[in-house]
Specification:
Elements (H helix, E strand, L loop, with lengths): L4 H13 L7 H13 L4 H11 L7 H4 L2 H4 L7 H7 L16 H4 L6 H13 L5 H18 L17 E4 L2 E4 H11 L5 H9 L16 H13 L13 H29 L4
Antiparallel strand pairs: 1-2
Helix pairs in contact: 2-9, 2-10, 2-11, 2-13, 8-9, 8-13, 9-13
Pfam family, one: S1-P1_nuclease
InterPro entries: PLipase_C/P1_nuclease_dom_sf, S1/P1nuclease
Protein name: S1/P1 Nuclease
């Protein structure tokens, strides 16, 4: 869907005065979580509700940004310091081919983070508190790895060092992808997720041979997206043409993340 010039101007004004969040932002993470929850099996849905009951919610969207929010909680600084590197992966080769010792040493990247917390979530011998935190991390990290600049190649800190003009002021490409593109739709997370879900099932990309690790493939897809022509805007200016061209990719990644998260949770939450 193309935005009208008036809509674009309104959104640009909004982002000129509102700080943009990070890691898809709460909007994107809530959309991914809601898309996944709509496709949980009854057994997985029941387990989500049981694990989240102490949080006084059964909604994945309510906890989707928790892994980011802990950095602002003085009582959670040790947890943030231990998990901050698990939100992203820095590929070291323009081919975006994953080499674990180079790209994810000691599993300290989003690929390793997802694998670790999925295993904790599926392990029913773990305390509920540990599995609850694992659920929060899985929901968040699967969203993160589908944001292209959380798995980029360039030596620009995932687009953070790539300065752009957006919303009438200086910004960077990472912030634009976290929140700016999605914000141009001017939709809250629930109606946005409803609209995306109403488009029907999304066809997922074919397996990347010879990979046998789904999490690696998802990260490689993001990395390769950043290398597509036009992803880095010429002239460092985000104009309407860029939004028209790249918003469909952002929404595609949200939909892919939601479907994949549902599949991961359906399996992990009903494991023997």
């Amino acid at each position: 869907m193309r935005s009208s010039p008036r809509l674009a101007a309104t959104v640009f004004a909004l982002f000129a005065v509102t700080p943009m969040a990070q890691a898809w932002g709460p909007l994107g993470h809530s959309i991914v979580a809601e898309l996944a929850q709509r496709h949980l099996s009854p057994a997985a849905e029941a387990e989500v509700e049981r694990l989240l009951a102490p949080e006084h919610t059964g909604s994945l969207a309510d906890i989707a940004s928790w892994a980011d929010e802990v950095r602002n909680d003085p009582a959670q600084q040790a947890l943030w310091n231990d998990t901050r590197s698990l939100h992203y992966i820095n590929f070291r080769d323009p081919s975006c081919d994953y080499v674990p010792p180079r790209d994810c040493p000691d599993d300290r990247c989003v690929v390793g983070g997802v694998a670790h917390y999925v295993a904790v979530l599926a392990d029913k011998t773990q305390p509920d508190a540990s599995r609850r935190d694992a659920l929060k991390f899985v929901v968040h990290f699967i969203g993160d790895m589908h944001q292209p600049l959380h798995a980029g190649y360039r030596d620009d800190k995932g687009g953070n060092d790539y300065q752009v003009q957006f919303a009438g002021k200086g910004s960077n490409l990472h912030k634009v992808w976290d929140s700016g593109l999605l914000g141009t739709r001017q939709l809250a997370w629930k109606p946005y997720a409803q609209e995306l879900d109403a488009r029907g099932p999304i066809a997922l990309p074919a397996p990347i041979a010879p990979l046998d690790n789904n999490y690696v493939q998802w990260a490689e897809e993001s990395c390769r997206a950043t290398g597509e022509a036009g992803f880095y805007p010429s002239g460092h200016v985000i104009e309407q043409a860029y939004i028209d061209a790249e918003l469909p990719l952002a929404e595609q990644r949200l939909r892919e993340a939601g479907r994949r998260l549902a599949e991961v949770l359906n399996q992990a939450l009903t494991a023997p």
